[in-house]
Prior knowledge:
By secondary structure, this protein is an alpha+beta fold. It has one domain: 3-Layer(aba) Sandwich (PvuII Endonuclease, Chain A), CATH 3.40.210. The protein has helices at 6-24, 31-43, 116-125, 129-133, 139-145, and strands spanning 57-61, 64-74, 96-102, 108-115, 147-150. A 5-stranded mixed beta sheet has the order 1-2-3-4-5. The chain starts with 5 loop residues before the first helix and ends in a 7-residue tail after the last strand.
Amino acid sequence: MGVYKLDKLMxxxxxxxxxxxxxxxxxxxxxxxxxxxxxxxxxxxxxxxxPISGVDALADSDQGEQRIQIKGRVIFDAxxxxxxxxxxxLDADWHVVLLVIMDEAYQTxxxxxxxxxxxxxxxxxxxxxxxxxxxxxxxxxxxxIADLVWxxxxxSS
Length: 157
């Protein structure tokens, strides 16, 4: 075990990544690891004991163990259109994909959940077969068809 706690290292990673972008205009490739860390921490998931191709986390459910792929996206300019979710591994044995949305400070602002079959159905209906074969989908489209799971949606009483 290292000298630093993992949560402190991740906070420092966020700070450094945000400062690097402000200073250089370029991004550091850390959003995937931050997204995995946040999804696992915030949603009470667990990492697989041994690596599983295309699977970043596990959760127990009524249907048994759920295998989860996690994607992260930092939104620097909400007005910018055409932002895409990272390429999804459609051939891997996962059940749900989570999209972790972060702000320009690399802080998680929302997590969306989408079942693999729902995603496959959507990709089949779309007319862009080149992107569909790679599992490419826009952030806006993902948010429109997925469920917001964090922060928990407000319920009316």
